[in-house]
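During the no-cost extension, the postdoctoral fellow (Dr. R.K.) reprocessed legacy sequence entries with the updated structure-token encoder. One reprocessed record is reproduced below for audit purposes.
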Amino acid sequence: MSATKTRQAARTRRHGRVRRKVAGTPERPRLAVFRSNQHIYAQVIDDRAGRTLVAASDMEADLRGVEETKSARARKVGALLAQRARAAGVESVVFDRGGFRFAGRVKELAEAAREEGLVF
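Re-encoded structure tokens follow.
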């Protein structure tokens, strides 16, 4: 098995452990983060209804052409997601780091969302 497959399988196992404990409710939806090598995506999900309430990523038109570090783009995504969530009436969420370490871009996104008023 290649190193990439092993790394992906390990992340999937870690994410499974996180998901056993974390579930989004209508009162407190789940803020799920996915990080690829180049991009970062985040969604606020109500798991009971099975629907995404709001989403943001650095692939969006207003964030796309900006030449910044990946961490700076992650901060912008976190702030944008928090603004959209508050506009949709979501004040508090549970954080799902998606099997990634809570460091680097994942942490930057979380801190920016907290600074914009999202509680978790």
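DSSP finds four helices and four strands in the chain. The CA atoms of residues 44 and 75 lie 16 Å apart. The remaining legacy entries will be reprocessed before the final report is submitted.
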